[in-house]
Amino acid sequence: MSNDPGGMGAGGEVGDAHLSLSADAGAPMAEKYLPGAGLDEPVLVDVTEVRPELADSALVDAIVAADRTVRTEVGEPLLRMEDVSVVFGGLTALDSVSFDIRRGEILGLIGPNGAGKTTAFNAMTGVYRPTKGLVRFDGQVLGKAKRNQITRLGIARTFQNIRLFNEMTALENVVVGTDARHRTSVPGALLRTRRHRQEERDAIDRSMAILEFVGVGARATEKARNLSYGEQRRLEIARALATEPKLLCLDEPAAGFNPAEKEALMDLIRHIRDDGYTVLLIEHDMRLVRGVTDRIVVLEFGKVIAEGTPEDVTADPKVIAAYLGVPDEELAEGDADAPA
Ligand SMILES: Nc1ncnc2c1ncn2[C@@H]1O[C@H](COP(=O)(O)OP(=O)(O)OP(=O)(O)O)[C@@H](O)[C@H]1O
């Protein structure tokens, strides 16, 4: 991946309109689409003027849908955590954890602070190697795969703390994500072969569609750092989608959102699932998790304590106790009352 924004296709074109990928693209675009808009004004682009076909949401959905062969059938386990333990020094952060993420579902991974959610995420995405057990993804053991290899295999993630290229435009941030799917060799890129230029144009087209899809198309030519907090969170999701993941992992994507923003985010996550993606969601907000997931896995002290539909899991006394700190005696009483 190039750190030089200009090296990623400066001067790329979208249709007939020139969409400069230079970092200062904002001002000219503002002049073009919002006559009179100055540098201090928010930069808004009418994407449907640049690419009229992007006004057709069905077409946007079709462009954004991943173009990949997935071996796993819909409804079958796409990712399997098989007896995974992760130990840091003397601390067992994950203790023989097994669960599946099925193709086409939104799986919620929840649990109190320190339960092991992020560690599970990191074990899946190649940040940590399991001390014991294995992670199987689309029929393949991830083994010693490194993070970039795992991205290429089809697992993309967002982070609890937003990590964007702040000085790049929103569009450039998404184009960077498409690199994971490029086929041009390094010499091809250096020589700017026809194939490389075509890939660049396709990347810009697809990135514009993804920005529209996540709801920040109008901010395409604005530097990432100038986007609102909520827009930056959506941009992170856009960048992850650009890698055409088989599995999209979202780590607390609603952190810091107000209720209306959370509602809108739930709509987006459902839309991503309905567009053919499989989603893993780590989230603290129980209402959000309950409202958007198909199934939930609950971790506590590094172990799976419950798994099932949102209704079943959120009614489970063990889960309620883990979240609300119900005294052990009450739990024991509850068990004693349960029919044999
Ligand atoms: N790199 C590390 N080195 C040592 N201990 C770690 C490391 N990462 C996590 N831990 C510990 O492992 C346990 C699980 O942490 P983890 O971050 O996975 O929990 P979590 O469920 O994601 O918590 P939160 O909701 O607070 O993000 C915690 O006790 C944590 O302190």
TrEMBL record:
Highest taxon of the lineage: Bacteria
SMART domains: AAA
InterPro entries assigned: AAA+_ATPase (IPR003593), ABC_AA/LPS_Transport (IPR051120), ABC_transporter-like_ATP-bd (IPR003439), ABC_transporter-like_CS (IPR017871), BCA_ABC_TP_C (IPR032823), P-loop_NTPase (IPR027417)
Keyword Transport: yes
Keyword Ribonucleoprotein: no
Keywords (A to Z) from UniProt: ATP-binding, Nucleotide-binding, Transport
Gene3D superfamilies attached to this UniProt entry: P-loop containing nucleotide triphosphate hydrolases
Example of a GO MF term: L-phenylalanine transmembrane transporter activity
Residue intervals of the ABC transporter domain: 79-326
Alphabetized Pfam families for the sequence: ABC_tran, BCA_ABC_TP_C
Biological processes, Gene Ontology terms: D-alanine transmembrane transport; L-alanine transport; L-isoleucine import across plasma membrane; L-valine import across plasma membrane
Record protein name field: ABC transporter ATP-binding protein
